[in-house]
Every structure is written in structure tokens, then in C-alpha cells.
TrEMBL record:
<feature type="binding site">
    <location>
        <position position="86"/>
    </location>
    <ligand>
        <name>NAD(+)</name>
    </ligand>
</feature>
<feature type="domain" description="UDP-glucose/GDP-mannose dehydrogenase C-terminal">
    <location>
        <begin position="320"/>
        <end position="424"/>
    </location>
</feature>
<feature type="binding site">
    <location>
        <position position="30"/>
    </location>
    <ligand>
        <name>NAD(+)</name>
    </ligand>
</feature>
<protein>
    <recommendedName>
        <fullName>UDP-glucose 6-dehydrogenase</fullName>
        <ecNumber>1.1.1.22</ecNumber>
    </recommendedName>
</protein>
<dbReference type="GO" id="GO:0000271">
    <property type="term" value="P:polysaccharide biosynthetic process"/>
</dbReference>
<dbReference type="InterPro" id="IPR017476">
    <property type="entry name" value="UDP-Glc/GDP-Man"/>
</dbReference>
<keyword id="KW-0560">Oxidoreductase</keyword>
<feature type="binding site">
    <location>
        <position position="334"/>
    </location>
    <ligand>
        <name>NAD(+)</name>
    </ligand>
</feature>
<feature type="binding site">
    <location>
        <begin position="255"/>
        <end position="259"/>
    </location>
    <ligand>
        <name>substrate</name>
    </ligand>
</feature>
<dbReference type="Pfam" id="PF00984">
    <property type="entry name" value="UDPG_MGDP_dh"/>
</dbReference>
<dbReference type="GO" id="GO:0006065">
    <property type="term" value="P:UDP-glucuronate biosynthetic process"/>
</dbReference>
<dbReference type="Pfam" id="PF03721">
    <property type="entry name" value="UDPG_MGDP_dh_N"/>
</dbReference>
<dbReference type="InterPro" id="IPR028357">
    <property type="entry name" value="UDPglc_DH_bac"/>
</dbReference>
<dbReference type="InterPro" id="IPR001732">
    <property type="entry name" value="UDP-Glc/GDP-Man_DH_N"/>
</dbReference>
<dbReference type="Pfam" id="PF03720">
    <property type="entry name" value="UDPG_MGDP_dh_C"/>
</dbReference>
<dbReference type="GO" id="GO:0003979">
    <property type="term" value="F:UDP-glucose 6-dehydrogenase activity"/>
</dbReference>
<dbReference type="InterPro" id="IPR014026">
    <property type="entry name" value="UDP-Glc/GDP-Man_DH_dimer"/>
</dbReference>
């Protein structure tokens, strides 16, 4: 099938590559010229495991093409995916300007029937807005061309995006049109052979499903972080509590890790956007507000440990920081806890020596050259001349470091672990002052 994807970010590029891999003829359109040129030259703009070879092979096979020419993209596919960003507006609601801009462009240039698929995360009612934009634009052209709008939210996880798209747990399709549904079944058939993963519903339910999923996951994290704060004050160990509650099959072990807060491009903005949606219709989303506020506080947790440990005397100190991305296996630093920490440290007059396996370039892009941020080549280099070590991301190769080397290199044998990678008792035996999240008497 001929498919066009608008927006080649984490979602659009992965989805496009995966659709091409199963044989579809996919054209990607983006307004970012540098991105398109780079992709044509084999330079992948993001780090995502397994993505680079997939893009390369499908590009070379001619099934995956890149362009900045929207008209070409609109001509290409009967199916037109919208996978552009929906960043938070000033008040936290989802900014739909990129989505409606694409819808308008499609309507300005379409000459035959199109299925417009909302793949971006968009508030309930957006498909209606998209439909309205297309109708109005076609009217201006005096054109009477049929089209349909479908909601097909994306559930991939950064860091496992390729496998999530290749083997989706569910494919949510919001439509009330059987012919469109047949087309969607054909499009996704290669991903739907083992068992039927398609969940069909009305458009508004599909739109809300995406927010409900992300808000549920964010709720689990904030709940555990609230428990971790209680554990700390009550002298209990949240890691024991986690295992205790995870063993209940109704709760399960997934996604109940306490830490220094959730980040990324989805949870913070989607929780906020659903709060705004609720408020706009006169509903007080008490639970969602609490989820957000617990998370905001949690992102300051490591800084408050540092302040406590150094008795407020952070000026002129240097801290080693392991982990900049909001989670492992990605270079994405959007809303990352490391940013909140670094910015607080800089404000307090401290310097950061940071290492991340994939996000160094992204950190350079965000912060540019500044004297209080030194990006170093290895995690060991980050320790040199540093007062203490802080960990913000649970990358695999941080899990079993050379503790003797850490101790010998740091000025103080102190570790502030935002992801509970180590055991407090072992750390004490090794001679460290160790701060974890919710680790009771040890902090
Ligand atoms: P992104 O910022 O990585 O990419 C968006 C791309 O859209 C950019 O390359 C940008 O240049 C392009 N763009 C903007 N306006 C355009 C236009 N008019 N025409 C063509 N391209 C245009 O965003 P992302 O992380 O891929 O997220 C996209 C959407 O998917 C968002 O709504 C997000 O909430 C949702 N989502 C993201 C994830 C994730 O893990 N990143 C997961 C599920 C859903």
C-alpha cells in the first residue's frame, strides 16, 4: 500500500520504517530540511535500537523515501499519517498547530480520496477539528473530494520503539466507517497475524485511550514515589515494599519502580493535557493533579539530598552525573530529571561533569557551551575531581561499576542514586555514604 507519513520524529520515523519493512511503499514528509537531507545520506536523527539498519535497508530498497515536498507526499499515499509533535501549550494543553497545519496542507493539495490518520497524541475532539479544517479548506478550493479521518494513537516506548511497532500489544483504531476499517486491517495485517491485536472503537474513545494509558502509567510511578517518601520517613525500604506488592498478581511488578521522577516527551505533557481537557469541561481531575505534583517534587529529590548532605554549601563544588536521558536506551532528554537537577545545581553555583551513553550530543544541543557543564567521554572521567556522584538514569552499564575506583576518584565517597541501582547495605560496607530513593534508615 502507498503510505505517507508527516513528521519523522520518534513516532513517524519508526512507524514509517516498520511499515516499509513489511512491504508498504512509504514516503516521509518533514519540514525540517536538515533532518530530511541527513536521512537521505543515511544519518539517523535519533538513537533508537535497531532503527538505523531498518531505515538504511528500506531506503536502499526504495520502499522508504524522504522529502520536504508536502505536495509530493500528498500525491503519494491514499493513507496519510499525521505523526507531528503535539507539545504543551503555555497552559499545558496540547498545542495542535502542527497537526492542523498538516491537515490544512493535505486539504490544499489532495486531488483524490485520502484517509487521514491521527497518529500523534491528540485530545478528544481533535479528529473533529481535523475534519473541520479539511472541509473548510476544500470549500475554499471549491473542491468536493471525499476523505476520512481515523484515530490511531501510537503506544511505542522510546528505547524499544522498533520492536513495539513490529509486535504491537494492541492497535487502536477509532473509526465508525467499515470501509476505512477494512483499509486499516489491510495496512496492519502483517502485524496482526499471530492474534487479533486490533481494538476497534469510536474516534473519541480512541483519542482518550492514549491519554488514559499514559496517565495510568504516570499514576503508577507517582504512587510509588509517594510510597517511597513515606518509606523514607518511616524507616522502611521501598524496594522491599515494591517486591512485596508486586507479588500480588492484581498489582504486578511492571512499572512500579520508585525514582527521581518521570520525564520524556509523553507522560508530563499528556498528564498536563488531560488535566486541561478535564478543567475545560468543568471537571476537577484531583488524581491527575496529584500525579503531576508528586512528580514535580520528586524531580527535586536528588538536589535536596545534595543540599542536606553538603549542608547547603554547593557553591564551587563539582558533581559527577551519570545519565542525562529521561530513561535508558534513548537519547531523548525532553523533561528529563537530569535537567531539573543540573539547572538547580548551576543555580546553586555548582558545576556538573556528565556522562551518558547516548545523550551527549543532545545535551550539547540543548545547553551549548557553558563552563559549568563538562561533557566527558566515559563514566569514569565524570568522577575526576568531583565531590560526589549522582545518578539520574538506569543505563545497564551503571549497574555494576568499579566501586573501588569510584571511591578512590571522588573527593567524598558519596553516591546519590536516583534509580536505586545499588543496595544500601553493600554500599555502607564499601564505605560509601549512599542516598537512594525511599531506602528508609539508610537515607
Ligand atoms: P518529534 O518531535 O520527535 O517529531 C515530530 C516531527 O514532526 C519533527 O521532525 C518535526 O519537524 C515534524 N513536523 C512538524 N510540523 C510538521 C509539518 N507541518 N509537516 C511535516 N512535519 C512536521 O515528536 P515524536 O516524539 O515523534 O511525537 C510525535 C507525536 O506522537 C506526539 O503527539 C507524541 O505525543 C506522540 N507519541 C510520542 C511517543 C514517543 O515516545 N516519543 C510515543 C507515542 C506517541
Amino acid at each position: 500500500m502507498k503510505v505517507t507519513v508527516f513528521g519523522i520524529g520518534y513516532v513517524g520515523l519508526v512507524q514509517a520504517a516498520v511499515l516499509a519493512e513489511v512491504g508498504h511503499d512509504v514516503m516521509c514528509v518533514d519540514v525540517d530540511e536538515a533532518k530530511v537531507t541527513n536521512l537521505k545520506n543515511g544519518v539517523i536523527p535519533i538513537f533508537e535500537p535497531g532503527l538505523a539498519p531498518l531505515v538504511k535497508e528500506n531506503y536502499e530498497a526504495g520502499r522508504l523515501t524522504f522529502t520536504t515536498n508536502a505536495i509530493q507526499g500528498i500525491e503519494h499515499g491514499e493513507i496519510q499519517f499525521i505523526a507531528v509533535g503535539t507539545p504543551p501549550d503555555e497552559d499545558g494543553s496540547a498545542d495542535l498547530k502542527y497537526v492542523t497545519a498538516v491537515a490544512r496542507t493535505i486539504a490544499e493539495h489532495m486531488t483524490g480520496y485520502k484517509v487521514i490518520i491521527d497518529k500523534s497524541t491528540v485530545p478528544v475532539g481533535t479528529a473533529d477539528k481535523v475534519r473541520q479544517v479539511v472541509i473548510e479548506t476544500l470549500k475554499k478550493r471549491n473542491a468536493d473530494i471525499p476523505f476520512d479521518v481515523v484515530s490511531n494513537p501510537e503506544f511505542l516506548k522510546e528505547g524499544a520503539a522498533v520492536s513495539d511497532c513490529m509486535k504491537p500489544e494492541r492497535i487502536i483504531i477509532g473509526t465508525n466507517n467499515d470501509q476505512v476499517l477494512d483499509l486499516m486491517r489491510e495496512l496492519y495485517a502483517p502485524f496482526n497475524r499471530n492474534h487479533d491485536r486490533m481494538v476497534i472503537m469510536d474516534i473519541r474513545s480512541a483519542e482518550l485511550t492514549k491519554y488514559a494509558a499514559n496517565c495510568m502509567l504516570a499514576t503508577k510511578i507517582s504512587f510509588m514515589n509517594e510510597m517511597s517518601n513515606l518509606a523514607e520517613l518511616l524507616g522502611a525500604d521501598i524496594e522491599k515494599v515494591r517486591q512485596g506488592i508486586g507479588s500480588d498478581s492484581r498489582i504486578g511488578y511492571h512499572f512500579i519502580y520508585p525514582g527521581c521522577g518521570y520525564g520524556g516527551s509523553c507522560f508530563p505533557k499528556d498528564v498536563q493535557a488531560l488535566i486541561r481537557t478535564a478543567e475545560n469541561i468543568g471537571y476537577q481531575p484531583t488524581l491527575l493533579q496529584a500525579v503531576e505534583s508528586v512528580n514535580d517534587k520528586q524531580k527535586h529529590k536528588l538536589f535536596s539530598f545534595l543540599q542536606r548532605h553538603f549542608k547547603g554549601d554547593l557553591k564551587g563544588r563539582t558533581f559527577a552525573l551519570w545519565g542525562l536521558s529521561f530513561k535508558p536506551n534513548t537519547d531523548d532528554m525532553r523533561e528529563s530529571s537530569s535537567r531539573v537537577l543540573m539547572e538547580s545545581l548551576w543555580q546553586a553555583g555548582a558545576k556538573v561533569q556528565a556522562f551518558d551513553p547516548e545523550a551527549m550530543e543532545e545535551a550539547r544541543r540543548i545547553y551549548g557551551d557553558r563552563s559549568d557543564l563538562v561533557l566527558v567521554a566515559t563514566k569514569e572521567d565524570a568522577l575526576k575531581g568531583a565531590d560526589a556522584l549522582v545518578i539520574c538514569t538506569e543505563w545497564q552499564n551503571f549497574r555494576a561499576p568499579d566501586f573501588d575506583l569510584i571511591k578512590a576518584t571522588l573527593k567524598q565517597a558519596a553516591i546519590f542514586d536516583g534509580r536505586n541501582l545499588y543496595e544500601p547495605e553493600r554500599m555502607a560496607q564499601r564505605g560509601f555514604t549512599y542516598y537512594g530513593i525511599g531506602r528508609g534508615a539508610s537515607v
